[in-house]
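Repro case for the chain-ordering regression, as requested:
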Amino acid sequence: MSQPQQIPVTVLTGYLGAGKTTLLNRILSENHGRKYAVIVNEFGEIGIDNDLIVESDEEIYEMNNGCVCCTVRGDLIRTVEGLMRRPGRFDAILVETTGLADPVPVAQTFFMDDDVRSKTKLDAVVALVDAKHLPLRLKDSKEAEDQIAFADVIVLNKTDLVTPEELANVEATVRAINPTAKIHRTSRSGVDLKEVLDRGAFDLSRALENDPHFLDADDHDHAHHDHHHGEASAIHDVTVKSVSLRGGEMDPKRFFPWIEKITQSEGPNILRLKGIIAIKDDPDRYVIQGVHMIMEGDHQRPWKDGEKHESRLVFIGRDLDEAKLRKSFEACQAA
Amino acid sequence: MPTVAPLDLTGHCVAAVFLGGVPHFALADGTVHRLDNGHKTETIHDGLLAAVYDAAGDRLITGGEDGKTVATKADGVSETLADIGRKWITSVAAGPQGAVAFATGRSAWVRFADGKQKEFQHPRSVEGIAFSPKGMRLGVARYNGATLHFPGADGKPVDLEWAGAHTGISFSPDGAFVVTTMQENALHGWKLADGKHMRMTGYPGKVKSLSWSAKGRWLASSGAPAAILWPFQSKDGPMGKAPLELGTRGNLMVTAVACHPAEEIVAIGYQDGMVLAARFGDQKEILLRRPGKGAVTSMAWDREGRRIAFGSEAGDCGVIDISA
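-- result from build under test --
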């Protein structure tokens, strides 16, 4: 599916004041060996004059298929198409969203539009989070939470403005919303650009190579083992939760219809889903990922000798019935 | 036997047209190439996004990444009609009495022959624009329908509603119908006299190329592994009638269509660069060009209906002469 000529796309989200412009200016000016075409909502404070910065109105279009979560960004379809008619000018595309933007239509554009999909591939969704103001943001907007829930990489910024206790709390909140993202603590958007660009987060095989503990439910955050996780109920103003499932080998005749049905019926509530599935009598690991009702799966690599044939699946979303998901998932296991 | 005179360029061809009988090729890099006693090139934009042939003025109207709207004539001389600065001109249109229109973001402008401009703002993006062939009327394709403006008068615009994102727009040559291409794989049409809807669905891909046949009897379209032609002979358009399918080729998609200026013949360009011509009546096909390097993006007949200029996304352009 991923052909070499597909241009990687990084999506940069984050509330106003979280440090997006600072990070963007670094990406545009630092020497990291790649040339970016950047799609922004407003030229605003980007201090760099560059032909490849394109201004675009965020234009969310509902697809006319009766599904309210099937939304795309119409302006991105047009702009990406225009950019891709002159390839060779840039190696990658970066989409900066407004502070209040819903990241889902941006991501879905790269799956749902055939033209965009044939020429580009989503690399990662990066969320900048202001460590000081996050608690306030979560109180007054659903978008701040969605941006965290949807991200592959979270840059926890402005850590110099909070106490270690506040930072630990904020990080625990972020973890509760999104147990699978990579978190980087930083101040002044000083994250190593390697951790933000060219991540291959939507290429699950690569995401797994980069992070062998990806989806390990007992080891969410590999640098810090001192936090509590999964305790969303203890944190106010959080409505997103995650459900991590674990099982043995799956019966393909039961698992595939099940996941299909879940993504159809629960699609509007599912922000992201990621999984590694052990299929009975299949020598390869099977990886799946999804956004709302869109789901993709592929064989990744053969199971290694001695590796436990185990299935793991994580849903991040709202109003997810954990008990029901767990029970029906476990019922898909091979006898 | 048809003969092909190739013109191998580098880059995506946005439009192939005849100006003063000379084939011109407008590329996404902003260059316009012409075959006028040899290959000549002019650079008219820093990045060209949209192009349309202005039949009344026999000129090419283009919009660029440089915010400019430019008119180019057969001798290669171009004139900047409008410059709105650092915005992409994503759609252009040519109208009656020397008027042109251009759009960026949520605004469309009409520029009259005397240089006067009028801006029309919309609550959502202007996706596509076209003038009606009759009267001073500009159609705008937008989210959830189309809007018709009357730039010559101060009257209120007419809104035509249909759920979904409409990306392009075209009027029938008699001005009786307006048809939009959609983000979903469909066309939508309105009969302007009574606002009656016409749904034209069943395409496996997005429709990007439309062409009205002589006297507007048929509307040819891309977006399927055949050219799909909807009958517009009756006063109610194609409703309840099956379209013609011409030049069916397995799974290879048609990417461009161009109807002959006088006869019921359509030139069909494919994803692999092949070009066929097919006659409506007996569905007879002839091969005009073998597959090339990239999908055919644009085709145009000369006024006599003897030659076809074509361009591709890979830049392998050329002229087909069917009179030989």
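Ordering looks correct now. Chain A has ten helices and 14 strands.
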